Amino acid sequence: xxxxxxxxxxxxxxxxxxxxxxxxxxxxxxxxxxxxxxxxxxxxxxxxxxxxxxxxxxxxxxxxxxxxxxxxxxxxxxxxxxxxxxxxxxxxxxxxxxxxxxxxxxxxxxxxxxxxxxxxxxxxxxxxxxxxxxxxxxxxxxxxxxxxxxxxxxxxxxxxxxxxxxxxxxxxxxxxxxxxxxxxxxxxxxxxxxxxxxxxxxxxxxxxxxxxxxxxxxxxxxxxxxxxxxxxxxxxxxxxxxxxxxxxxxxxxxxxxxxxxxxxxxxxxxxxxxxxxxxxxxxxxxxxxxxxxxxxxxxxxxx
Amino acid sequence: xxxxxxxxxxxxxxxxxxxxxxxxxxxxxxxxxxxxxxxxxxxxxxxxxxxxxxxxxxxxxxxxxxxxxxxxxxxxxxxxxxxxxxxxxxxxxxxxxxxxxxxxxxxxxxxxxxxxxxxxxxxxxxxxxxxxxxxxxxxxxxxxxxxxxxxxxxxxxxxxxxxxxxxxxxxxxxxxxxxxxxxxxxxxxxxxxxxxxxxxxxxxxxxxxxxxxxxxxxxxxxxxxxxxxxxxxxxxxxxxxxxxxxxxxxxxxxxxxxxxxxxxxxxxxxxxxxxxxxxxxxxxxxxxxxxxxxxxxxxxxxxxxxxxxxxxxxxxxxxxxxxxxxxxxxxxxxxxxxxxxxxxxxxxxxxxxxxxxxxxxxxxxxxxxxxxxxxxxxxxxxxxxxxxxxxxxxxxxxxxxxxxxxxxxxxxxxxxxxxxxxxxxxxxxxxxxxxxxxxxxxxxxxxxxxxxxxxxxxxxxxxxxxxxxxxxxxxxxxxxxxxxxxxxxxxxxxxxxxxxxxxxx
Lengths: 303, 505
Known about the structure:
The structure holds 2 protein chains of 2 kinds.
Chain A: E1 2-5, H1 10-24, E2 33-40, H2 44-55, E3 60-68, E4 75-81, E5 90-97, H3 105-109, E6 118-121, H4 134-138, E7 141-144, H5 152-161, E8 167-169, H6 170-173, H7 176-186, E9 194-201, H8 206-219, E10 223-226, E11 228-229, E12 232-233, E13 237-244, E14 248-254, E15 257-262, E16 265-271, H9 277-286, H10 292-302
Parallel strand pairs in A: 2-3, 2-6, 3-5, 6-7, 7-8, 9-10
Antiparallel strand pairs in A: 1-4, 4-5, 9-13, 11-12, 13-14, 14-15, 15-16
Helix pairs in contact in A: 2-9, 5-10, 8-10
Chain B: E1 21-25, H1 30-45, E2 54-59, H2 65-79, H3 86-93, E3 96-100, H4 106-122, E4 129-133, H5 140-149, E5 161-166, H6 173-186, E6 192-195, H7 202-212, E7 226-234, H8 243-246, H9 250-268, H10 277-289, E8 291-292, H11 297-300, E9 301-306, E10 309-311, E11 314-316, E12 334-341, E13 350-356, E14 363-370, E15 390-396, E16 400-408, E17 416-424, H12 425-428, H13 436-446, H14 455-473, E18 479-481, H15 489-497
Parallel strand pairs in B: 1-2, 1-4, 2-3, 4-5, 5-6, 7-13, 9-18
Antiparallel strand pairs in B: 7-14, 8-12, 9-12, 10-11, 12-13, 14-15, 15-16, 16-17
Helix pairs in contact in B: 1-2, 1-13, 5-6, 6-14, 9-10, 9-14, 10-14
C-alpha cells in the first residue's frame, strides 16, 4: 500500500503511521533498526529497491531523505509504503526542498524506531565528514560510497581525516569475499615468507586500493597495484599474486570464477562473483558498531 | 607460524573450511537426498567450502559418477535452500566422484582409496577426509573395519581423518558402548563427530545466548522462581515408512535420549566457564549426571500407542496396523516422564518431558513455568483468569520466544488476565537461518566440536533412560491414544498427581 501525503509535516506522518498500524495491522514490532538513506531524486528508486531487498534480511524502518536544495519553494512531500510495496519493511520517503532542509535532523527524529540502532547510507553523493552531518550524527553506523565520488582516493583521504568509529565504506565491503578466500588460502602457507605481492585492479577502484592496502598492512610488504593483466586494462579487481621465497600464490578472476594456483597443490578454482550493492548493504547491516579492520587500513594508508 | 592475514578477529571474514573431501556412505537414503546433499550445495553457494572440496559417494548401486551427479543434481534442485546457480553447480560437479561396492567388499574399498588418492593429487584435498556414515548402525562395524584395513582411516602427518555418525547411538547403555568401541578402535575420540541435528538449530544455540548474554533471565532461571519445566516434542505424522527402524525402539529411545535430553541439558546446565567445546560439554555432562527419574517409575512416566481414527480430516491407521509393524508390538509412540535434576539450582523443580507421534500438531518447545506470586495485593477474584507466568522457547516451528504474564483488563475493576509478549526469529532476523545440517557439516569440516555430543553424554543419557524403558518392558501393552490428541490419559494423571497440568503447546 502506498499513502501519499503532499505538503505535510513529520507529526502528521507520525500520526498516519500510527493509524496504519492500528487499522491495517501493519506492525513495526520486530523491526531491528532504522535505515536512513540520504540521496537525490535521481537515485531514489534504485536506493529504495536496494534497501527493500536488504530489509528482507534485516527488518527495518527505512527513511529516505531525497533532497533538492536548488528549488525555491520550501515544502515537504511524504510517501509511505507498507506491506507488499515495501518488502519486509516500511518505507517513508521524504522529498524535501528549500528551507525545510535547514533542519534535517528534525525531519527524521520523529520517525526513528525507539531504542533501535540507526544506520545511515549515502548511495548517491557521500559527505566528506560522515559523522559531522546532521544525519550521520544520529547514526551509529555510517555507510559511504567512495566509488561514486569523482576522485575516490582523495575522498578516502577525507574519510580518514574525519574518521569516527561506526564509519564504513561500501568499497571495503565489496572485498570481503576476496579477503576471506585469501585468508583461507594463506592458512595453507603459514611456513612461507612473503616477499612481494601484487593486486591487479583498476586505478580508479577504491576497492582495489583498499585490498592492496590491507594486504600490505598484514603481510608487511609493499603491494603493487597493476592496472593491466595480460595486456588488458582491469575493471574493478582482477586478481592477487603473493610471492614467497621460492614460489607464488595467485588468484585470478575471470567472469565469476577465480583460478587459484599455489605451491604444493594442484590448480583449482573457486566461485567469486562480483558483489551487488544489495549483498554489500546486507553485510554492512549485519555488523553494527566499529569496523576495526577498515579503520586500521583507512587510518594507516590515507591519513 | 601464523597466518599474517589473520591479524585480529575480523568479524567480516567467514570461516572457510580448509582443503578437504567428504566421503559419504548411504548416499541413496532419504536423509542424503533431502538434507545432506542440498546442505553441501548451500554451503558451496555461501562460499564456505574450500576450492578443493570433493564429494565421494559410496553405495551398493551400480552407478557411474554421471549417474550419481544426476542424483545430486535432482536432490539439490528439489531441496536446496539457496537459489540455483549454474556456476555453483559446475563448481560442485568438478569434485564429485562415485564408487560402487558392497560394504563387505575389500576391493571396493581399494577402489575408494584410489579415488581418494587421485583427489589429493588432482584437486588438492591434501589428504584431509571426512567419512560421513549415513548408514544403519548394524553396518558400522563392517564399514569401519574396511576403512581401517584399506588404510583409508589412517591420516599422514599434518592430515586429518574424521568420521561423522548419526543417531541412534545404540539402543541402551550397553549397545551404545559396543557401537562406540567399534568406531573408537579405528578413530580417536576427537575425530568422531556425533550428529544430533537439534544442536545445529539456531533456536537451540540461542538458548545459550538467551541465558548467558542477558541479565534479564539468568537471575530467575532457578528453582526459587520456576515451578517446573515442560519440554515437548510432538509430531502430527505417524511412523510413515520407518516401521523397520521404529518397532522395538519407540519414542523414548528415538528422540528423548538425544534431542530432549540435550534440550534439558542446555536449559538446566550451569554457566560454563567459556564456550570452549570441553567446558560446554562438561557443563552438560554435569547436569545429565545429576538427572534421574523419581521412584516409583510407573507413577512418574507414561507411554502410549496411537489408535486408528480420523485426524484433521484424514483417516489414519493405528500404530499396530501400520505396514511392517508387529500387531502385538509393545513399542511406545508416545512417552512422557518426570525427571529431577539434583543440582542446587533445580532442587524441587521437576522437568517433564514428552514426545510422540500423531499428536495435536508438529511442535517442539521448552516451557519454563513460573511459581505464582503471593496474591496479597489482588484478591482471588481479580486474578482468577491469570495462569502461571511462563517463558516458552519455541524450537520449531515459528522459532522464537514467548513470555506470558498478567496484565490488567481495561475497565473500572481490577481484573488481571494473561497476555503474551512474543519474539519471532522470522520477524527480527528475516535472514534465512542456515539449515542445521549446513552448520554441522561445516563444523565437522572445520574440526569444531562444540555442537557435537561426545560419548560420555550419550552414555549419561542412556543411564537416565535405561531404567525407565526396562520398567516399561514389564508393563505389557501401552495405553492407546486418539490420533491428533496430546497423548494418553496416564500422562495427564502423571501431572495431576504432582498438582500440575500439561500446557497446550
